Amino acid sequence: MGRAFGPYELRRRLWRNPSSEVWSAVEVATGDRVAVRMLRPERSDDQPFRERFLRELDEVAELRHDHIAPITAFARHDGRLYVATQLLDGDLVEQVRDRGPLPPAAAVEVIEQVAAALDAVHDAGLVHGDLRPSKVLVREVPRTAYLNGFGVGCSVGADGRGVTGAGGVFTAPRHIAPERFPRAVRPEARAAEAERVARVAGDRRIDVYALACLLFHALTGRPAFPEGNRPELGETRPPPRASTLRRGIPEGLNRVIVTGLASDPDRRYATAGRFAVAAREALTTPETPWVKRRTGRPASGGRTPTDPRSTAEPPPPPRPRPEPGPRPQPGPGRPSAGDGRRRPRRVGRVLAGLAAAAALAAGGLWLASGEGEPPQAGIPVAGEPGAIALSPDGLTAWTTDATADTVSVIDLTARAVVASVPVGDAPRAIALSPDGAAAYVVNHGADSVSIIRLADRVVVATVPVGEEPTDVALDADGGRAFVNDQEGGTISVIDTATRTVDEPLRVSALWGDSGDEVVVTPDGSRALVSLTSWWSDDSLLVVDTGRDDVLATIPVGEAPRGLVISPDGARAYVANTADGTLTVVDAANGAVITTVVVGDEPDEVAISADGRHVLVVNAYSETLSVVDTGTNAVVAEIPTGGAPRGVAVSPDGRRAYVALPGAVAVLDLPA
Q1: What is the spatial distance between Cα 94 and Cα 606, in angstroms, rounded to a whole number?
Q2: What is the pLDDT of residues 283-342, one digit of tens each?
Q3: Which parts of this chain are annotated as the region Disordered (predicted)?
């Protein structure tokens, strides 16, 4: 039994943020299952906000549109505003996270439905103002999308974060159009600037921008601009091309997204419906032939098709990669936006064309130099390989596939998949025990860890852990497995002998802090977690595993993700996705040794058994950076192709194995 709230019995909290929380509930009188969103009390006490909230919900409820989440009730109870809607299967964030990015046809279908709802809202004189993947509810069968989240429009504070009507920070600015950010003006112009920002909030084209962000997320599983497209970051910087992150996306959809994300509202599609029509046409219109050139431009006489409904210019050519220069100096701080270390978001494909012959000669992967997708060498693997781990003898690889909820077993001598092991929902990470007897697979969508006995490839146990686990690491003797629980802000510690979970270690109590990867020192005394925070600097946390105490918070780069520790436990290496760097940390005293510039959007990392090289997978530039740990310098940049994800290195340090969509690439490494 749950607790009572007005006419409802609250059963389970689905999620919460600083502005509200959502519960699955049952309406006592009817037995209907609903989702109840309750706003925090201070927002309910704000009279202007309360009046706007109730008025907007009343207007939306009157629309009764097929693709607007049906509102069953909205009122105030015990001093808290709430709105109840039908309880559906989940939102777009959950679907993409648990099942992987949508195929282009399915993504466009969702966009068409959301666009139809937005047009109805706009025709009624309203603007959603906070459209993002979590505000799109999805019914699985038949696939039906519903627009949700009305009544709580988003404004933007001076610090670039989304704020509520009552002033509470509640969202990152990933989906917010650049014109909505307040500009730095002189004191006498602040009133006029505030009026401009308020006026922009009523422009339907801010929803068109957010709809383009939504399509990009549905296609790739990641935001177009992880840190937002804020004016101070450059209003005219081009958005990334979705097809560089995921194979099979038509070039036409890239152009539609570019137009929808135009910094100038006049260059966007005028309505959500027009955006959806252009997306549908991109799927059904044959592509203009392209010839692979190192610049990625059309063949002579060809041109990039443009949509007649927009005056948007095609995206500018890729910016060149900076010339090699002095590496950043050691220091404890993160690189700043103005110190020249931020990497450009788009990397030319010239590198790929120049390196293709060398990659072939080395037995590596052929990489496209233009817009097309060339044949790829490597080990074919069904689905979308993600995390990858090698057996201690280097003869077998194990790789997760979140789209099929399986782990593929690869014979590296035969270069073939020899088995597929079903595990839990959305497997995301894998680690092998030091003796090679067991694999520990993190099931992100099932809040569990599957333990596979490697001898016969059988799941022998499934251990419940914390909410939304993301990574797992074992100590040197394999006695404990440490699992990062992203949503709960904890580390679950599994006793591998009893297969039970001890009391979790607290990492962060702040909502919005997101731990991603975890490593453990060889003696098991400390766990390190890469942490992205909305409230403070992104950091590397050092946790005492014996006392449940955070020993150090070390500032690193922006959006830290990939994390490894040297075999002797002396150094940790953190890949910072948003600024294209690798932070080198002295794990003993918590000091930053240096920051190494690598490729664009570094994601996963691995370290050789002798500790000589750190390998960094760069998702956007589609390369593998090889860093010499003696000099802390990049000694090789190897093209990978595809949209590289996980990486592992052979025990002898001679080869890297990189997970790509549909394949695992085998790359020779420098001596």
Answers
A1: 28
A2: 887 654 333 222 232 232 332 333 333 334 333 333 333 333 333 333 333 333 233 323
A3: 224-248, 286-343
